[in-house]
């Protein structure tokens, strides 16, 4: 239906984010409403993939104007149709409102979240129907593949990618052209191309624009001489797999995939390999073993996977976003691509903004954009009037960088110099309510649980480090703990075969480097400045504020609060599990629950009558 | 009651279409788990036979990957994401609230086999953090309130705080 001459299109996002907000039903309701209103000739309802602004979902866009609706509900559907197509004006209340000025911004392109992006890899995301190959073709899809097959030798393709300066988007940043060249020269038959779709951003691209990935994979296969490809995706990513499967079928029908592609001698096919959930499989060798059906573990290099990969045969493994960049480079040229970004990092970075940031979602910016611009201008800063404290880049094994690092450019070298990584492109923002010791402990525990167990420093070192940090956060830390953690981190970095072990200490190292005072408060003063660590925090009910309403008494899951009507309630500290339910449930007009660390708050030991004048009801 | 022979036959039927594939161990395990809910010992033996590896190897793979389960689970599998984004946005408190609401610890199943609770590395719904999955459905932007609404409140039990 993509080529019908309808005047308007209503795009309904059905990425995983919006889907979980029931966007499929909205799509259906819109289609029915359009029909009922007799608008079927001029308005078409279309499914798209992720727009990246998942937090605002479900998202509905009216094209060609680009009217952008957020948080659309089923009940809104009749009004959405009537307002714009009958009354000819956008529905004010569903428009995006600027969080600071609270002014409505009707158009997609004017919203700061979008206006400051540079969308290359995400060029089609949210614009096309991922289940219609026609949509992709209409936007120049598969022209790069045609160009490559009809007019370029594999060596020329590799040369073009090398000149573009494209580096792997999966984390390590290895030059893509160099890898392709090695795979091209490697001896062995058949050869494989593997696409790693491990991160949240990969999933979104796979859901929103599967053909760009498939086209990139096919070009890679042509360049290195591979006949079989695998796309490795978590078994949980149902929508992504379904759409990619459809894309493969459609491409085969048009001879863009399969035997003798476009009439040439080149044949290539792809299988979807469903990952069974092991974080270590982001590591190249572990990923390949997982495809083979084995436990995913790294190995000593060499041999490199390009020489001995899947079943011992040459294998070229690239991240999904790397491959999705390839068709663009072929079409627009290496020089164009190299003109974007910084000296060492070319092109754009797709970043996943998460954590305590106003605009959660997926964005794309030129390499070299500062963290400040990403977090504050595009991401809208920290919500709720809270102060920015730290940002972790690259995933759970990335470093936690402080405010003074905000002017750092997002590129491979700058982040690594500051003690972090580009990694998956995740940007997790933490606000003043985050305890940096507790946060580092959480990230380290994650890596501990995901360690494959092959290298001793990772298998044994991570649990020991977590144990030390447990001690610190429970108030039993010793002054020498910090130096011990530093030493163990060093062993881990030197003695691990893969990126998991080598990067796992990053959050600990950076947390100590930039937030040492917090560590010392925990160890020396047995105090958690951010009031997070449970063992160092207590809850108290202030006698001059408590009105004896009983809400917290009933809500407490541990039955730790006593006190009848008009009696000051008291928390039994020995029973309290520090779940903060009382703090949440205490009516804001009373705000009688206080959280404290490292200080004693004077409160009655037993319920006492509320002091005269403290309340009048 | 499902007998051991039933399990063997079921397993063979499920994995038969995969015969001849180059990488079939994990797909076979996934297919069997999808149908049976978990991987019983007899099923692992059958899978090993088809894949040409020992039961040991199958068991090794089953325990390596988070997806596989060697014990039966509840009708509703609640999996709380403990990925990075969810962690930063308070998944720990969400998990604690669910544990209290269902009176269940991670890795356990309610006696009535209604719910199982587990954590999951990352479900890729980071912009909706904190998130969880209940069977196939992804539920995002969780709050402790949302969790309480989601799970039918169980009567407050004696010593609910016992570890």
The coarse overall form of chain B would be elongated
- Main pleated-sheet profile of chain B: 4 strands, mixed
The stretches of 5 or more residues of chain A where confidence is low (pLDDT under 50) are none
Q: How many H/I helical runs of chain B?
A: 7
Contiguous low-pLDDT stretches of chain B (5 residues minimum) are 155-163
Main CATH class of the largest domain in chain A: Alpha Beta
Biggest sheet of chain A: strands side by side, in what order? 12-11-15-13-14
Shape of chain A: globular
How many individual β-strands of chain B? Answer: 4
Integer count of domains of chain A: 5
Walkthrough of the structure:
The complex is a heterodimer of chains A (617) and B (163). Chain A is an alpha/beta fold. Helix content of chain A is 37%, strand content 14%. Chain A is built from 24 helices and 19 strands. Chain A starts with 7 loop residues before the first strand and ends in a 21-residue tail after the last strand. The mean pLDDT of chain A is 93. Chain B is an alpha+beta fold and 163 residues long. Chain B folds into two domains: 4-64, Orthogonal Bundle (Arc Repressor Mutant, subunit A), CATH 1.10.10; 76-150, Glutaredoxin. Chain B is built from seven helices and four strands. Chain B is 42% helix and 11% strand. In chain B, helix 1 packs across helix 2, helix 1 (4-15) runs parallel beside helix 3 (41-51) and helix 3 packs across helix 4 (55-64). In chain B, strand 3 and strand 4 (137-139) form a beta hairpin. The chains are: A alpha/beta (617), B alpha+beta (163). Chains A and B meet through helix 1, helix 12, strand 11, strand 15 and helix 17 of A and helix 2, helix 4, helix 5, helix 6 and strand 4 of B.
């Amino acid at each position: 239906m993509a080529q019908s001459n309808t005047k308007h299109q209503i795009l309904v996002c059905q990425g995983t984010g919006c889907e979980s907000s029931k966007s499929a039903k909205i799509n259906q309701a819109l289609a029915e409403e359009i029909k009922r209103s007799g608008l079927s000739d001029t308005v078409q309802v279309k499914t798209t993939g992720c727009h990246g602004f998942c937090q605002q979902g479900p998202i509905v866009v009216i094209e060609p104007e680009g009217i952008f609706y957020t948080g659309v509900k089923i009940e809104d559907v009749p009004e959405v149709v009537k307002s714009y197509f009958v009354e000819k004006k956008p529905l004010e209340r569903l428009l995006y409102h600027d969080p600071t000025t609270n002014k409505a911004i009707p158009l997609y392109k004017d919203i700061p979240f979008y206006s400051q992006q540079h969308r290359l890899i995400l060029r089609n995301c949210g614009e096309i129907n991922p289940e219609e190959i026609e949509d992709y073709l209409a936007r120049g899809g598969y022209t790069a593949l045609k160009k490559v097959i009809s007019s370029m030798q594999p060596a020329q393709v590799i040369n073009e990618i090398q000149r573009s300066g494209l580096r792997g988007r999966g984390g390590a940043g290895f030059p893509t052209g160099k890898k392709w060249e090695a795979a091209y020269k490697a001896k062995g038959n058949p050869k494989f191309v593997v696409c790693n779709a491990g991160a949240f951003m990969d999933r979104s691209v796979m859901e929103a624009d599967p053909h760009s990935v498939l086209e990139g994979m096919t070009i890679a296969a042509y360049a290195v001489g591979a006949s079989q490809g695998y796309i490795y995706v978590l078994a949980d990513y149902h929508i992504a797999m379904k759409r990619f499967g459809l894309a493969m079928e459609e491409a085969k029908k048009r001879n863009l995939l399969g035997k003798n592609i476009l009439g040439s001698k080149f044949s290539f096919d792809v299988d979807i390999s469903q990952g069974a959930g092991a974080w270590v499989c982001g590591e190249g060798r572990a990923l390949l073993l997982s495809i083979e059906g084995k436990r995913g573990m790294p190995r000593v290099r060499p041999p490199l996977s390009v020489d001995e990969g899947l079943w011992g045969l040459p294998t070229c493994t690239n991240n999904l976003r790397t491959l999705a960049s390839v068709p663009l480079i072929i079409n627009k040229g290496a020089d164009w691509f190299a003109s974007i970004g910084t000296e060492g990092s070319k092109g754009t970075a797709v970043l996943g903004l998460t954590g305590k940031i106003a605009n959660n979602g997926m964005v794309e910016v030129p390499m070299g954009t500062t963290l400040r611009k990403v977090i504050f201008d595009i991401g809208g800063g920290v919500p709720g009037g809270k102060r920015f404290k730290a940002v972790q880049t690259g995933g759970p094994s990335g470093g936690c960088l402080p405010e003074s690092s905000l002017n750092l450019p997002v590129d491979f070298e700058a982040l690594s110099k500051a003690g972090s990584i580009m990694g998956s492109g995740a940007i997790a923002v933490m606000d003043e309510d985050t305890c940096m010791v507790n946060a580092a402990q959480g990230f380290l525990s994650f890596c501990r649980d995901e360690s494959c167990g092959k290298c001793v420093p990772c298998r044994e070192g991570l649990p020991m480090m977590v144990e030390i940090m447990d001690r610190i956060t429970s108030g039993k830390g010793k002054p020498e703990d910090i130096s011990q953690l530093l030493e163990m981190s060093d062993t881990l970095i030197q003695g691990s075969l893969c990126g998991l072990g080598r990067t796992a200490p990053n959050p600990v190292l950076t947390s100590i480097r930039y937030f040492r005072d917090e560590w010392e408060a925990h160890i020396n003063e047995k105090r958690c400045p951010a009031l997070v660590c449970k063992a160092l925090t207590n809850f108290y009910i202030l006698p001059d504020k408590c009105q004896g309403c009983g809400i917290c008494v009933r809500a407490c899951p541990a039955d730790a609060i006593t006190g009848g009507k008009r009696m000051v309630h008291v928390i039994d500290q020995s029973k309290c599990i520090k779940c903060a339910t009382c703090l949440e449930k205490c009516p804001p007009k009373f705000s009688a629950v206080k959280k404290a660390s490292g200080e004693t708050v004077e409160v009655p030991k037993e319920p006492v009558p509320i002091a005269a004048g403290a309340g009048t009801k | 009651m499902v007998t051991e022979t039933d399990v063997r036959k079921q397993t063979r039927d499920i994995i038969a279409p995969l015969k001849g594939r180059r990488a079939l161990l994990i797909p076979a395990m996934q297919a069997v788990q999808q149908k049976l809910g978990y991987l019983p010992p007899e099923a692992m033996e059958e899978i090993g036979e088809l894949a040409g590896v020992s039961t040991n190897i199958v068991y090794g793979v089953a325990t390596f990957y988070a997806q596989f389960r060697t014990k039966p689970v509840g009708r509703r599998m609640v999996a709380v994401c403990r990925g990075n984004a969810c962690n930063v946005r308070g998944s720990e408190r969400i998990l604690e609230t669910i544990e209290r609401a269902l009176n269940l610890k991670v890795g356990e199943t309610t006696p009535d086999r209604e719910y199982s609770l587990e954590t999951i590395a990352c479900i890729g719904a980071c912009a909706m953090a904190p998130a969880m999955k209940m069977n196939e459905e992804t539920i995002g932007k969780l709050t402790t309130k949302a969790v309480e609404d989601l799970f039918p409140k169980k009567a407050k039990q004696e010593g609910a705080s016992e570890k």
